[in-house]
Amino acid sequence: MDRLQANKILQRVADIPLYLHAYAFHLNMRMEKILPEDLLTIASEQRLRGVKIHVHDGESQSLGCASDEQLGHFADRARQLGLDIHIETSASDAKTLDQAVAIAIKSGASSIRFYPRYEGHLDDVIPKIALDIQYIKNNYQHSGLSFTLEQHEDLKSHELMSLLAEADFPQLSLLFDFANMINANEEPLSALATMASQITQVHIKDAVIMHEVNGLGHKACISGQGDLPFKELLLQLICLGENQPQVIAYGLEEEVDYYAPPFRFNGEDNNPWIPWREMSETPLPEQDIDLRLDKELNDALQQINYVREILNELKQDALAVLK
Predict the structure, then answer these.
(1) Under CATH, which architecture does the 3-322 domain have?
(2) pLDDT in tens, 217-268
(3) CA pair distance 143, 87, nearest whole angstrom
(4) Cα(67)–Cα(74) distance, rounded to whole angstroms?
(5) Which domain of life, per UniProt (predicted)?
(6) For residue 130, what pLDDT is reported?
(7) DSSP string of 108-172?
(8) C-alpha angle 113-116-121 in degrees, rounded to nearest 5
């Protein structure tokens, strides 16, 4: 940490915009033990800035299945608690984004995260994503919503940067996930350096890097027990932006036991095959489900404490530098 970073840390660390992320409660939400409105309660109790929630979180009780009246009630509850809402979805096609925007507007959300899931050679996939981005721009640029494109395991950082450069879409930026670049055969700090100028939102998690044949997978784990440069990533992200913080939302996305395989490989050519993949999912255990659900809840809450401990360490480091 240098003196410039130390000053930024001291100016910003007390007001880091931490958001509860629904995926930290993925198994509980699959079993409908925790529902969207419960996330608002937890976020408020934990003194967080808001909630990031997928349109399908909560299964039959999800926002995607909610009536207009229910979405309005969700919006009212969030406003009462002073919480910001970010909607997430797991594709980039027009139908998927139309649904996400409708839910976002009715639930009082401010932002939508998406990522593409196309199969094909890279040279065919990239133009499809570019067309999707133009659809969002042409239809929703003036909706009042911001949009983030997440690096989600298959595209490399420079490819995402090229998509944004060509889009000319000020309301679109990048969401940086602590681990997802690994599957695209990239390292976290180098990916951060490449994407730095366009990152406005973050998913915080930890993972063990899995060295597989000619590529890298990752298995998410309890924060602080993985291979990721957790503290350094937070330092670099907090310091983005010269006069004001560039990152406006940090999602606390504990994903213990989530696994993603390699998608990009050493020695691949300039037009590799991008395989189809389903939406992210962590497998339910075959037995002792209630114990696993309790553990997931505890892991999620413990991550909040752990991140706050790291933030306090950064503050102490900054004070030491400036002495």
Answers:
(1) Alpha-Beta Barrel (3.20)
(2) 999 999 999 999 999 999 999 999 999 999 999 999 999 999 999 999 999 9
(3) 14
(4) 11
(5) Bacteria
(6) 98
(7) T--EEEE-----EEHHHHHHHHHHHHHHHHHHHTTSS-EEEEE--SSS-HHHHHHHHHHH--TTE
(8) 160
Neighbours of 7 (CB within 10 A): 14
Which structure tokens are listed for 323?
A: 């002495």
Tokens coding 155: 């595209």
- Asked whether 248 and 17 are in contact (CB, 8 A), the reply is yes
Tokens, residue 270:
């300039």
Residue 3 parent element (H or E): helix 3-12
CB-CB neighbours of 284 under 10 Å: 13
Distance of alpha carbon 117 from alpha carbon 272, whole angstroms: 15
Euclidean distance between CA atoms 179 and 49, whole angstroms: 23
Q: Which residue carries 């929630």 as its tokens? A: 53
List residues bridging with 212 in a β-sheet.
215
Domain spans in the chain, listed from the N-terminal domain onward:
3-322
**Mean confidence (pLDDT) of the chain:** 97
Separation CA 50–CA 109 (nearest Å): 10
- Two tokens, residue 27: 């198994």
Residue type, 17: P
In terms of residues, how long is the chain? 323
Strand 18-21 with 50-54, pairing: parallel
